[in-house]
Amino acid sequence: MQDEIVARLAGTLNSQLVAAEARRSEQAPNPDSMDLYFQGLAWYNKGRTPDNLAQARSFFDRALIADPDNVDALIGSAAANADAGSLLFVTDPAAAFAAAEAKLTKALSSVPDHALGHMYLGLVDIMTKRAAEGIAECEHALALDRNLASAHSIIGFGKVCIGRAEETEAHIGEALRLSPRDTSAHIWMGVAGLAKLHIGSYEQAVAWCRRAIEANRNYPLPNFVLAAALAQLGRLDEAHSAVKAALALLPTFAISRARAAYTARSDNPTYLAGLEPIFDGMCKAGVPER
Q1: From 16-20, 36-40, 190-194, 205-209, the region with the lowest mean pLDDT
Q2: Nearest to residue 235, comparing CAs of 189, 203, 274, 259?
Q3: Cα distances (angstroms) measured from residue 60 to each of 37, 40, 65, 78, 85
Q4: Fewest CB atoms less than 10 Å from the CB: which of 5, 20, 96, 111?
Q5: How far is CA 190 from the centre of its chain?
Q6: Distance of alpha carbon 145 from its chain centroid, rounded?
Q7: What's the pLDDT tens digit per position in 36-88?
Q8: Could you tell me if 127 and 97 are in contact, meaning their C-beta atoms sit under 8 angstroms apart?
Q9: What are the phi and psi torsion angles at 111 (to 5°)?
Q10: pLDDT tens figures, 224-277
């Protein structure tokens, strides 16, 4: 219990300190590499949207120009690449993952025990048909920093990709236990919703997606998952409304793009079979095919 309280306080304090440092850095007449890094981190903590990630990566990359040895900025830039590919914010996710992996490999060659570096490398592995390796990377990250709540969520997503989506909710619960007000909590809830959709638990998928949307209304993907679940429940009016909200946030999303990206993540037959009701639900809900 004491460890949990410390973890929650540390997470809350860290977000507040990042925001305060970013505000200070904005006023610096000649911002140095760490000033730029904190501004990038502040954009990252605002939530995952195409604009927020682009802004974050821009500051991280400027920090690297100022100091090529800034490992934290290098990992931040890699994280922005990995998330942009994972969330279908870019037209070529494979290129985003390749860029992220190259940056993470470089960073970890300099600082082998960087927990965040291992966690994001785990995400890249999971997104590129190496889910078992990705889960192991995240477990290593947790061995280095047991309060790294996002690693639990990524492990949960990895379980979806190896056909064990029924185990995902427990990992999301652990992430939320460690950091219930985390700036990434909306992503974790969305992962739980997706896992429930994979196993046909549509009512539970709806509940998790609504929690994710309530936590951050600017994050588009839970709206698409919500739409698919509602459509499979026969609640088409609500599904159409969810699609409308989702496309307002991410107008480039289409079933063909989602199918290409999602099938590139895993060859597991259980995982692949679980995708079909998702795409069918999206089609019924009115998500454009192309």
Answers
A1: 16-20
A2: 203
A3: 5, 6, 9, 9, 17
A4: 5
A5: 9
A6: 19
A7: 998 999 999 888 889 999 999 999 999 999 999 999 999 999 999 999 999 99
A8: yes
A9: -130, 85
A10: 999 999 999 999 999 999 999 999 999 999 999 999 999 999 999 999 999 999
For residue 53, give both structure tokens.
């990630």
**Is-contact 189 222, C-beta < 8 A?**
yes
SS3 of residue 31 by DSSP: coil
Token code pair at residue 216: 């951050």
pLDDT at 139: 98
- DSSP label at residue 28: -
The domains found in the chain, sorted by start residue, are: 1-146 (1.25.40.10)
Question: Which pair of structure tokens corresponds to residue 158?
Answer: 């990895």
Q: Report the alpha-carbon distance of residue 145 to residue 153 in Å, rounded.
A: 14
Rounded Cα distance, 119 and 122, in Å: 5
- Is the pLDDT score of 30 beyond 70? no
Query: What is the rounded (10 degree) CA torsion for 11, 15, 17, 18?
Result: 130
The two structure tokens encoding residue 215: 């936590």
Which two tokens mark 87?
A: 């969330």
One-letter amino acid for residue 252 of the chain: T
**Which residue carries 């309530």 as its tokens?**
214
Given a contact cutoff of 8 angstroms between Cβ atoms, the answer to whether 153 and 175 are in contact is yes
Cα–Cα dist 45/182, whole Å: 9
Match 């539970």 to its residue by tokens: 204
Give the C-alpha separation, 235 to 241, whole Å: 10
66 CA to centre of own chain: 28
Share above pLDDT 70 across residues of the chain, in percent, rounded to a whole number: 90
